[in-house]
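Write out structure tokens for Tail-specific protease.
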Amino acid sequence: MKKQMLLAAMSLAILSAYGHAAPADKAAVEQIKPAAQQTQAALWASRVLSRYHYKATPLDDAMSEKIYDRYFKSLDAEKLFFVQADLDKYAGAKAKLDDAIVGENLQMPFDIYNLYQQRFNDRIAYARELLKTKPDFTLDESYQYDREKAEWPKSEADVKDLWRKRVKNDWLRLKLAGKDDKAIRETLDKRYENYLSRSRKLNGEDVFQIFMNAYAMSIEPHTNYLGPRASDNFDIQMRLSLEGIGAVLQTRDEYTVIREIVTGSPAGMSGKLKVGDKIVGVAQGDNAPVTDVLGWRIDDVVQQIRGPKDSKVRLQVLPGDAGPDAKPVMISLVRKKISMEEQSAKKTIMEVKDGTVKRRIGVISLPTFYQDFEARRRGDKDYKSATRDVARLLAELKKDKVDNVLIDLRNNGGGSLTEAVELTGLFIDKGPVVQQRSAEGRVEVENDTIAGLAWDGPIGVLINRGSASASEIFAAAVQDYGRGIVIGEPSFGKGTVQTLISLDRFAQDKQRLGELKMTVAQFFRINGGTTQLRGVTPDIKLPQLSDAENFGESSYDNALPYTVIKPAVYIPAGEVKDIVPLLAKKHEARVLKDKDFQFLVDDVNYVKKQRKDNLISLNEKERRKERDEQEARAKLREARLAAAPSADDPILVPDPTVKNAVTPKPAGAKQAKQAAAAAVKGVSRTDDGLQGDERSLAAELEAEKAAKNAKDVLLLEAVHIMADEVSLLKTDTRLASRVLPYTPDR
């Protein structure tokens, strides 16, 4: 699932979220120590993992060495802080981390982290010293921007040279964007200071989670430890709801800033909060004192604002358009249940011209396979469910008289296995959907047991490398049943089953120890193969945008192997092998003439070359040449986008259920140029040398809006393929009877 993939990189996510830094004063570096409940959590986690994991592995000296290597890499993935001598200093720990866990003494891994903080302090201090000089951009040298597979720096001189080049690259990016030396120094000094500020907010729970994930992921990539707070957030993601005020927050310059307000939420209904407002204090109920949250971690502020439904929270807010010396205002809100609708299934209808007729294609985008498990368990009739939402959308698309349906699962990392099975059941009558094999070798078949279909017409499934787990189960079942066409790039390749195991049951004095997300079984397709490692291969391939070498199951050094078991007993619902070559031929002919598609292919090849080279010049003349070439590419694309839209482009049909929906009209020259400018700004913005929080919030939101509105070339081509399928099925009854056995006269 998507959340699982994010959690699989938990250690790096924590560090990227709060910065890789330490306080500037060495004496001020706080020594973080393990808590008693953490040593308990580690011990109980080791007992569960070594006995009940699908790949049960003893916690011994061999595992200790793996933990040691992964822990150092988790702390310093790009090898910019530690030097080889630091690893040598703790070489004795290689075979002792298992003893540290079993013996309930985690001081050693915490000491390693404290050394990391000190080293980061050293590097940032050096980087800030370098800002007092001026780099020489006439030298012919380059910077390796991806160092994950590089060797550890051998000496202090080596690591200083790495940082000299890093600072030089930061400086050059700003220089090319037009900033003078004074502005560059101010920007970078503030950037590095922000690294330090964010790092001060790291605490023992963060450190423990990084270490425990080094252990869990050394067994298998999708096994993770979730601390108490991470566990709460995981639950929120699965049920797509929480109790709060309905505001999306972010940190900018030590302030907690409102980035988005959810429509219909307490924050939205009040009319008192605006995007850009700064929350500087939080109070509970009517009489509790205000807690100053200036400079707090974002998750700590969120924890203060969330609370039980119908309870009151008071926010001390500095208006976004007010100066820093303005007087804050107090706003009182009553918390309500907030639905995270942006992650729910959504539908659109696209019309494609086919001679004198129009083919109507319904597109359902599904970001994740969600379900409110607790609401379903207690019998709530309206519990949140991906399958229920998709079934409702399919009913609406039937009324809209669409000819074909495309399920867009791009970047859907999965979710609930139950939802994957039940969603498949919307498109098949009855039968097996996926097989599971336990650690003991016992195979169980998950079946769709509900007769009938929510949609008996043709379907397509759009996937990419980010489609994983439950997405792969659904796509594989559609493919094995011959029920539809799978389009896109090979999927992630995650064919393992995880379950959540609470460690709180082992706690003393009702302490929270967190949870394990542990692999307990492996998925197998109903044809006997598995999605593990190889993923789902699409019937019609689109350009591969992702880096398969560094993203996907095959990129993990300890992924489970591909294996085959006995097929399940199932009856294919259709046969698409005759229609796929015809659709592929039409697709290939069309994209050769599609300039937008060819631009995308060029971009993919350009990025692949950059990844392979893994070097960027630090010579100003060379970089200006590269920048000019990129700008020329952008102008060429802008000219193309400014032209009149192609008559063959699919047209978005307005949703009649949406209030004030606007009917799309062919763009005139002025409108086309405006759309082109917005799209180019969104996808081809000239590098300004800034990081996200260094730009204004308004600029960031505008860029995101433009990117969302940019032409989705791959989706439009998939819609074309679906329209081609409709045409073939309507003109060839033999094909129709094979592809759509449920309704051969359709």
